[in-house]
Amino acid sequence: ETGVTQTPRHLVMGMTNKKSLKCEQHLGHNAMYWYKQSAKKPLELMFVYNFKEQTENNSVPSRFSPECPNSSHLFLHLHTLQPEDSALYLCASSQEPGGYNYGYTFGSGTRLTVV
Amino acid sequence: GESVGLHLPTLSVQEGDNSIINCAYSNSASDYFIWYKQESGKGPQFIIDIRSNMDKRQGQRVTVLLNKTVKHLSLQIAATQPGDSAVYFCAETPMDSSYKLIFGSGTRLLVRP
């Protein structure tokens, strides 16, 4: 365990479903991130939260909706996804924005399949 | 956590040999660099970092070299072991966007027994 826990580990959903991914860290970190890792592209930054405030939305479609209720929890709400959204979704946290001093700590990811 | 299907450069080395994985970064304003290792079924794991005011940093069996002139980063792994087989990513934090880490495309390291 890295200290960043993601649930569920695997998720299969239809294009009309609504689901949520959860990320939790108890490392005392102040910044949290969502990344997408797909077969066609390397790690893509989606969202950045610093001290619970969203500081980056990397042109992510509105069918992905992040939520950060406190500095320990991060959610990614999913609705009306497309098959091309199938990927590994990784959550990460860092003590400082940008990962200075030991970088990001990643969770193991949620493998999402959209059918 | 695997990058299945992604066409990655692959480095194949004999167990016990040294490995050198290279990375070219794009932003001359980047001031912090990290190497990550990603094993199958896991998220990326921090290996070693280096700031732009340094050109070399050593860890346990790993060394990172930074050449700012040509914007090149390398990871050297001494006495490569089967457990080193993974995908390796370099990442940079641009000074003009210091709240995010930008990842490279990765290199797959295969260790032959």
Show the helix and strand layout:
The complex is a heterodimer of chains A (115) and B (113).
Chain A lengths: L3 E4 L2 E4 L4 E8 L5 E7 L6 E7 L2 E5 L6 E7 L2 E7 L7 E8 L10 E2 L3 E5 L1
Parallel strand pairs in A: 2-11
Antiparallel strand pairs in A: 1-3, 3-8, 4-5, 4-9, 5-6, 7-8, 9-10, 9-11
Chain B lengths: L9 E5 L4 E6 L5 E9 L6 E7 L4 E3 L3 E6 L4 E6 L8 E9 L7 E2 L3 E6 L1
Parallel strand pairs in B: 1-10
Antiparallel strand pairs in B: 2-7, 3-4, 3-8, 5-6, 6-7, 8-9, 8-10
Radius of gyration of chain A: 13 Å
Assembly of the depicted chains: heterodimer
Name the structural class of chain A: mainly beta
Tell me the major beta sheet of chain A.
Answer: 7 strands, mixed
The helix count of chain A comes to 0
Termini separation of chain A comes to: 30 Å
Structural features:
heterodimer, A: 115 residues, mainly beta, seven-stranded mixed beta sheet, four-stranded antiparallel beta sheet, 0% helix, globular, B: 113 residues, six-stranded mixed beta sheet, 10 strands, 52% strand, disordered N terminus
How would you characterize this protein structure?
The complex is a heterodimer of chains A (115) and B (113). Chain A has 115 residues and is mostly beta strands. Chain A has strands at 4-7, 10-13, 18-25, 31-37, 44-50, 53-57, 64-70, 73-79, 87-94, 105-106, 110-114. In chain A, the strands form two sheets. In chain A, strands 2, 4, 5, 6, 9, 10 and 11 form a seven-stranded mixed β-sheet that branches. Chain A starts with a strand and ends with a strand. Chain B contains no helices and ten strands. Chain B is an all-beta fold and 113 residues long. In chain B, the strands form two sheets. In chain B, strands 1, 3, 4, 8, 9 and 10 form a six-stranded mixed β-sheet that branches. Classes of the chains: A mainly beta (115), B mainly beta (113). The A-B interface holds A 2, 4, 31, 33, 35, 37-43, 45, 48, 50, 55-56, 88, 90, 92, 94, 97-109 and B 1, 3-6, 32, 34, 36, 41-46, 49, 89, 91, 93, 97-106.
